[in-house]
Amino acid sequence: xxxxxxxxxxxxxxxxxxxxxxxxxxxxxxxxxxxxxxxxxxxxxxxxxxxxxxxxxxxxxxxxxxxxxxxxxxxxxxxxxxxxxxxxxxxxxxxxxxxxxxxxxxxxxxxxxxxxxxxxxxxxxxxxxxxxxxxxxxxxxxxxxxxxxxxxxxxxxxxxxxxxxxxxxxxxxxxxxxxxxxxxxxxxxxxxxxxxxxxxxxxxxxxxxxxxxxxxxxxxxxxxxxxxxxxxxxxxxxxxxxxxxxxxxxxxxxxxxxxxxxxxxxxxxxxxxxxxxxxxxxxxxxxxxxxxxxxxxxxxxxxxxxxxxxxxxxxxxxxxxxxxxxxxxxxxxxxxxxxxxxxxxxxxxxxxxxxxxxxxxxxxxxxxxxxxxxxxxxxxxxxxxxxxxxxxxxxxxxxxxxxxxxxxxxxxxxxxxxxxxxxxxxxxxxxxxxxxxxxxxxxxxxxxxxxxxxxxxxxxxxxxxxxxxxxxxxxxxxxxxxxx
Length: 484
Fold this sequence. Notes:
By secondary structure, the protein is of the alpha/beta class. It has helices at 30-42, 73-89, 92-106, 128-136, 156-169, 173-184, 203-210, 219-234, 237-252, 256-263, 275-286, 300-309, 314-334, 342-345, 348-359, 366-375, 380-399, 407-416, 420-423, 429-437, 443-458, 475-478; strands spanning 2-6, 16-18, 50-56, 66-71, 107-108, 118-119, 121-122, 191-197, 265-268, 271-274.
């Protein structure tokens, strides 16, 4: 890994700069564009604008040098649009003088003798059409941009162009020259460019290190990009797009409600993670390439990369993607955001287990529960039986106040063989008695126990379907109202 302060002109010497094809869309808006302009206008030359993380790609002999943008696509996209706006507003004479500089920043040639120019920043599939339209406009016979046709409903990249165009149009030619010269000055090292090498540096680890500056690349983004980049390698771009739309976009990005659900964070032990990362973590445990005894969450994206890149045929990779989608459907249907959501849509055996896990703040068994739902989706009685065993396993250990540090190991064992749960219920009478005597220091467990003892006392049905009260009730609601 190498980090250097550089001016925007560093990209002149690069070949293609690839924004991962399935990267998140361009999201900057007017507030970001205005902040960027203020920083360029008002701050002294050399003022730091942010970091860009680039990964060197391996290329075949004869192909142009290629870099992949790991982070910084918003910044580098916006700066390139600003340069294009300035170029478009300059007089013909100035454009002739700077044409070579701008072309080298915005375009590249596959061969030195080639007369055809290709856009240097190869954008993601959701933004590529809009970005290419802006950059190609006015070059080599392409039509110019009519900003009157750009509205609030237009693509954000087009709106970015219009915003800069209207701001710069009101400046004098000299002001525009000053800002352009400031942007392209070799001495104006306003970016920190971090170059990482494929196969040697872990971009997730680097990203986490930079997270204190507000940089955030999610584990899910890295996994998604790795998945579909590998699919493009094994098939082609068109097939990859079709599969992406059918099995990823439809599952995780179908509409605003779906997108917000998967981005919503929930507590998992000491950490707070979004639903999509929890799902992907669970999927990795279920499929055995994440070992809770050996690996940390920081290694999740790297382990996915290894698993994905070891798939050497189209069919196995497609099945891998489809399987994630199947588990996602179960997760979204079966894992409540809050205990109150359990009221009407879940069976009594589910309400009990989720309530107990919630009160005891245990999320370690999410992969196991997800696996059980999937494996026995057509055998509800088996699910009831396993959930009952897991409920007893957890609640008895909680009463006895036994250590929970082996739950990761237990989860892995139970996924391999759910029948082991019965064998692991090893709590003795002495353990229970000892734990109960010490519950005065563990109010939440005491409350939980009294709550469920009362439920079992009131509703003596079979062990799986014992009825439940509304979970918004507190202990006082079920205590005797008179001392008798």
